[in-house]
């Protein structure tokens, strides 16, 4: 390669920021015409290779001399080749970096941009982080994606990580500006997703430090999340103010309606109050009768001073003391209720439980359970007697039960 050709290669590399092999390929195909080679490079087209008898120091390939991508056979025959335009980054990885085939789906969104747009209405993605890879540039950042948690970091922030190759239709849609010109290189772009539209918020072109890029992207997503939270908060405050106003209006209307109803029913209110008083007196009487029934039962138990008998001991703990009773394994579990109620320490209304393991003791007779329910003391259903024995209930020698005051 003579000095003129070397100068053309250097000029091509400076203008396009491509590597020497790519510059040589374009210049070789255009007989080292830098202007035509650069135009084809930025247009993403591949100039047709001129025949040896067409080459001359001043000859150049016309602008219309464009051919299809070379076949694999032609690529193998060519001493210097240019990279094809890959429609999907998975195709690029399979061809250029097959070692990442197994992991590419865990890093990149698996379809093209149009499929991603179709997915947006059904996903909860708020951000799109797009990596546009320049095959002619450094692959360092691309490699870092497979050894770091960058993609997962994007997903945990509520985003989707998308990849495409420079020159593909998706890359042109995501970055349709003219900045690719002389600055044609890999970049990461952050978009805000609104419905199915994308708004660009950040673009990072210096990917030489993958760790710094990951940190900057994460900080950018945090800022976007904060902005989104502020927007949601403002909307919530506006909605709350609107709701309060509507509620106040509704309360006013309801209050007005109540006043009108009170005026209309002023004559019947006295009768209603009288009926309410009578109902209250009836309930009070029923309560007194229930209390009296329990007290009479308790009194009858207290009058019977016969000590409990049995082969086993059971400790009953009251809110203000304790008592030990004896029982046999085949005794009815309701014996615990009777022995507890016989004690002066026992409250009138109660239920019982064990602590280890903690569970209700099903010892309350049906009549007593109904009284607790009518008194609205909300006894546990598990405390209602199931006609079991001590042994069937798992209460053994040395067990302990607690009395809960209702």
UniProtKB/TrEMBL annotation:
Family annotation (Gene3D superfamilies): DNA helicase RuvA subunit, C-terminal domain, Phosphatidylinositol 3-kinase Catalytic Subunit, Chain A, domain 1
Domain of life: Eukaryota
Stretch list, region Disordered: 49-82, 263-290
Gene Ontology MF term list: ubiquitin binding
Biased composition annotated in UniProt, kind: Low complexity: 56-72
PANTHER family hit by this protein: FAS-ASSOCIATED PROTEIN (PTHR23322), UBX DOMAIN-CONTAINING PROTEIN 8 (PTHR23322:SF93)
Listed name of the protein: UBX domain-containing protein
Source organism: Caenorhabditis latens
């Amino acid at each position: 390669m003579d000095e003129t050709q070397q100068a053309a290669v250097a000029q091509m590399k400076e203008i396009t920021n491509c590597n020497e092999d790519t510059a040589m390929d374009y210049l070789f195909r255009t007989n080292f015409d830098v202007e035509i080679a650069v135009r084809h490079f930025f247009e993403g087209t591949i100039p047709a290779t001129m025949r040896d008898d067409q080459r001359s120091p001043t000859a150049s390939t016309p602008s219309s001399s464009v051919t299809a991508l070379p076949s694999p056979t032609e690529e193998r025959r060519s001493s210097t080749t240019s990279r094809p335009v890959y429609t999907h980054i998975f195709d690029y990885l399979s061809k250029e970096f097959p070692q990442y085939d197994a992991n590419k789906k865990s890093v990149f969104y698996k379809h093209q941009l149009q499929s991603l747009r179709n997915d947006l209405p059904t996903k909860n993605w708020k951000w799109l982080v797009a990596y546009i890879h320049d095959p002619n540039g450094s692959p360092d950042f691309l490699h870092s994606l497979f050894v770091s948690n960058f993609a997962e970091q994007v997903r945990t922030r509520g985003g989707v990580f998308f990849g495409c190759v420079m020159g593909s239709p998706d890359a042109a849609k995501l970055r349709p500006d003219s900045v690719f010109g002389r600055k044609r290189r890999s970049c990461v772009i952050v978009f805000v997703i609104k419905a199915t539209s994308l708004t660009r918020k950040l673009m990072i072109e210096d990917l030489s430090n993958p760790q710094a890029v990951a940190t900057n992207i994460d900080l950018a997503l945090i800022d976007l999340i904060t902005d989104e939270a502020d927007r949601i908060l403002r909307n919530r405050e506006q909605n709350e103010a609107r709701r309060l106003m509507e509620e106040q209006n509704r309360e006013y209307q309801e209050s007005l309606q109540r006043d009108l109803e009170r005026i209309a029913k002023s004559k019947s209110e006295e009768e209603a109050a009288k009926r309410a008083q009578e109902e209250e007196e009836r309930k009070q009487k029923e309560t007194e009768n229930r209390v009296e029934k329990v007290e009479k039962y308790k009194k009858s138990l207290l009058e019977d001073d016969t000590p409990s008998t049995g082969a086993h001991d059971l400790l009953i703990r009251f809110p203000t003391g304790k008592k030990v009773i004896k029982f046999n394994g085949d005794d009815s579990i309701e014996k615990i209720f009777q022995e507890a109620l016989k004690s002066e320490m026992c409250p009138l209304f109660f239920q019982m439980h064990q602590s280890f393991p903690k569970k209700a003791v099903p010892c309350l007779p049906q009549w007593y359970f109904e009284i607790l329910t009518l008194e609205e003391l909300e006894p546990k259903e598990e405390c209602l007697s199931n006609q079991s024995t001590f042994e069937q209930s798992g209460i053994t020698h040395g067990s302990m039960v607690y009395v809960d005051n209702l």
